[in-house]
Amino acid sequence: MEDRFEPAVRFENVNYSIDGDLILKEVTGSFPKGRITTIVGPSGAGKSTLLKLCNGLISPDSGKILIDGRQTEEMDPVRLRRKVGIALQDAPMMDGSVFDNLEIPLVLQGKRLEPEAAQSALTDVGLPAGLLSRDSRELSGGQRQKVSIARTLINRPEVLLLDEITSSLDPASQAEIELLIKTLNDRHGTTVIWITHNIDQAVRIGDYTWVMMDGKVAETGEALLLHEPATLQVREFVKGGQV
Amino acid sequence: MTYGTLALTLIFVFIPLVLTRVLNLGLEKDLLIATIRSVIQLLAVGYLLAFVFEAESPVFILLMITLMIVAATHNVQRKGTAIPGITAKVAVTFIFIEVLTQGILLGFGIIPATPQYIIPISGMVIGNSMVLAILFLNRFTAEVEARRGEVELFLSLGGTPKQAIHPRLMQAIKASMIPTLESQKTMGLVQLPGMMSGLIIGGADPIEAVQFQLLIIFLIMTNAAVTSAMLGFLSYPTLFNGRMQLVRKLET
Questions:
Q1: How far off is chain B from A1, nearest CA to CA, in Å?
Q2: Of A115, A195, B135, B241, which residue is least crowded by CB atoms under 10 Å?
Q3: Of residues A57, A59, A94, nearest to B155 (C-beta)
Q4: Minimal Cβ distance to B157: which of A73, A79, A81
Q5: Rounded mean pLDDT of chain A?
């Protein structure tokens, strides 16, 4: 399928290590533009590292990452991070209100967030506008993740990276986030790359899937591949159902 | 004070020695080393100062100040910090604070340009800066490590390293300044400051002693603010690489 789509993000022989331990090994593959790709795989497979590389929070030891055909290492890091936004694992919140947190991306550009824009940022992710003045420490897990996504979306990224945002949520909150991802993708054509632990969720929401195993790309293809994996390794992982 | 009288003060070393033996604290060796080192170091400094004061040469004054800066820098470096290339940054900070404070003191004629004034005040300034630098660097690296997620959040949203580190930097500067400010608030109430006490014992008029002590207190306020802020702004860029990425785990 890879030849048939236009890649938003492409990895070419990417290696990444920490203190001599190889976290990613010769990773090559593409994420289709305007579609939802899920990344699944056991803990420690290098999934979060992949996302941080896309956002430029870290750089590969070797190999290339291309965003719309341009190598990330040649792009201005600030522009790259606004173009390829990431909602980090655990949705870190700064002290202050929800509004204060939503305003961060604009404050970093020397701008202010208009109250109307803040309200629509919240309603876009399915949260009531009344939540704006709420202390960020008082948010529930699901609300926190949604505020984190809304904050990332303030930069209007072309690619949205979501790092395990549903793993600690109850089923109802998970369903809300799934709907939100679908809506964002349908309405704005945003390319979404997200990590999930849940295989059913990956099939349900994802158009395309990357399966990561031990720092390598084990399989990529239409999300349905998870129903019939080609390799024994991925079959066993999917059969386990969980990481 | 005669050397005979000074020898009598060793009673104050003997008391803790007996206590550490009785209570089995195992500090005998440390007590003896501390005593011997302080006797040798202070006597050496005393004779050195006597020589420098008599010579009244700017070269010797500069040499003394250089020696203080080198020793203070070495001490900060020895305390260990994860910030790369910190030695030069600490040295530059000490030189700047010394030039700034002496520039004001001498420029406005607050103190006479004699080694008797320049050297002891330089010692207090550099010594105070050294303690502040250690406090600041420990706090700063701990802040960055503990709130790494927040620093990365700012970076991930398109913030520059300066924007990402700013809250942590301010926190560390503030935290390193608080002990100085707090101790100055109670000054004179709980204990008489060292310099003032020394002047009074030396026979100076208590009001004059207070005036000099106030000078030192005000000086140390500048010292606290400038040392932490300058060291902070000099050192934070080394926590990031050219791609605006936070360097991996800081070894403390």
A1: 31
A2: A115
A3: A57
A4: A81
A5: 92
The DSSP line for A200-217 is: HHHHHH-SEEEEEETTEE
> CB-based contact (8 Å) between B247 and chain A?
no
């790369």: which residue's tokens?
B84
Q: Which of A24, A50, A9 is nearest to A163 (CA)?
A: A50
A67's tokens:
């965003």
Q: Look at the block and give the residue holding tokens 């030396």.
A: B202
Residue type, A215: G
Q: Which residues of chain A have a Cβ shorter than 8 Å from any chain B Cβ?
A: 18-19, 55-59, 73, 77-79, 81-82, 85-86, 88, 90, 92, 94, 104-105, 108-109, 151-152, 155
Q: What are A196's two structure tokens?
A: 């999930």
Q: Would you call A88 and B153 a contact, using CB atoms and an 8 Å cutoff? A: yes
Dig out the tokens for A87 from the structure.
Answer: 């909602």
CB-based contacts of B124, cutoff 8 Å, min separation 6: B195, B216, B219, B220
Q: What is the pLDDT of residue A241?
A: 60
Distance CA A143, CA A151 (A): 12
Nearest to B151 by CA among A178, A169, A20, A88: A88
The pair of structure tokens assigned to A183 is 């809506």
3-state secondary structure of A74: helix
**Between β-strands A36-40 and A208-213, what pairing exists: parallel, antiparallel or unpaired?**
parallel
pLDDT tens per residue across span B159-185: 999 999 999 999 999 999 998 888 888
Q: Give Cα separations from A104 to A239, B96, B250 (angstroms).
A: 42, 35, 26
Contact (CB<8Å) B155/A151? no
**CB nearest to A88's CB, from B152, B163, B245:** B152
Who among B149, B158, B244 is closest to A105 (CB)? B158
Q: In this structure, what token pair is assigned to residue A203?
A: 């099939």
Overall pTM surpassing 0.95 (yes/no): no
In angstroms, what separates the C-alpha of A76 from chain B's closest C-alpha?
Answer: 8
- The verdict on B146 touching A (C-beta cutoff 8 Å) is no
Within 13 Å of residue B242, how many CA atoms lie on the same side as its CB?
A: 3
Structure token digits, residue B125: 């300034």
At residue A222, φ and ψ (nearest 5 deg) are: -55, 150
- Are B157 and A85 inside 8 Å of each other by CB? yes
Mark B167-195 as b/e (b = at least 16 C-beta within 10 Å).
bbbeebbebbbeebeeebeeeeeeebbeb
Q: Nearest to residue B247, comparing CAs of B159, B151, B137, B138?
A: B151
Whether ipTM exceeds 0.85: yes
B185 touches chain A (CB under 8 A): no
Pull the structure tokens for residue B2.
């005669």
